[in-house]
Amino acid sequence: MAFARITGVGKYIPERHVTNAELETIIDTNDAWISENIGLKTRSVIAPGETIADMGTRAAAEALANSRRDDIGLVICATNSPDVLYPATACRIAADLGLGHIPAYDLQAGCTGFLYALAQARAVVETQAKSVLVVGSDALSTGFLWKGDRNAVLFGDGAGAVVLSPSEKPGILAMHIGAEYSDAITLKTPADSALNSPLYYLAGESGRRPGDYYTKMNGRAIMKLSLAHVPKAIDTVLEHAGLAASDIDVFLPHQTNKHVIRKLADHVGFPHEKIPDVLSRHGSLSTAVIPVSFSLALESGLLRSGSRVLLCAYGAGFTFGAAVLEHR
Fold first, then answer.
1. Contact (Cβ atoms closer than 8 angstroms) between residue 302 and residue 266
2. Cα 38 from Cα 185, distance rounded (Å)
């Protein structure tokens, strides 16, 4: 059986960034509140006409170039904001990259989606000895009712990707993912099966009724759930990997709120200032946070050969997870 290790990493961040001051003109908020309560200064925003698949393809192309692998046997795209429900975003990415008729599918597990996809990719790599392209691409800025929801300031747009490949030595040392049902974050369409049913039209109605397609978020509930589950997931993977928290060289947590980041870092005993800053510059990038953080850690020299890396994430579902790997 082969082991699985990351052989290539890539990211894509849209050029346009929206500042807190700009948001003050459309939302009842201000720079001081956003900075203090969340930790953002600017957030990256997808360009008009740009798609989730476009962003994912650009991040994936960089990851493939860095990996120098030509044995991709599967593409998984973790996304919570696909351009269309079908065909899958992953199919579009595979086609754009010219990867041939390999399997490709999307995965939705909230902001934990990238870790969920990594867990599935690991199983494929270890049992089939083929590389897997794992992409996280999201534009959650497009899913909020901007003039009525202060939570909208949290999210930015972007994509990250890794290539997971067979290896003679372990790369991923341990993973743990889980879920507890919670509707603290929902992309809500009314729970009404007749909304666009043929029965609705057969009853004499002439047009589709208006629906509610905006994201609803209870930030306090998500924070409470994250601090209940993620530290336990971290402890679990460290135990399974036979490591202590002090053995971790690089900590890459999900980034939605600076206070949660600090609490998770304190749990590990990891210096806050050593965590690559995605949140304040780009906003919370959902499924792209971890691969973008990984890329930034490589670029800065924080991540080196032999580094032991701890990942963790949480998101709508409520989903959560953690992983430990050794970078080679």
1. no
2. 17
Residue 217 binned pLDDT confidence (cut-offs 50, 70, 90) = confident
How many Cβ atoms from other residues are within 10 Å of residue 141's Cβ?
24
Cis, bond preceding 271 (omega within 30 deg of 0)? no
- Residue 174 forms beta bridges with which residues? 324
Distance of CA 183 to the CA centre of its chain: 19
Contacts of 133 (CB under 8 A, 6+ apart): 60, 63, 64, 72, 74, 75, 76, 93, 94, 99, 161, 162, 163
E strand or H helix at 18: strand 17-19
Q: In this structure, what is the dihedral angle of CA atoms 27, 30, 33, 39, given to the nearest 10 degrees?
A: 90
Q: How far apart are CA 46 and CA 232, in angstroms?
A: 35
Beta strand ranges found along 125-193 (DSSP E): 131-139, 157-167, 172-179, 185-187
66 closest CA partner among 294, 275, 317: 294
Q: Mean of the pLDDT values across residues 216-241?
A: 95
Domains with residue ranges and CATH for the chain: 3-169 (3.40.47.10), 173-183+215-326 (3.40.47.10)
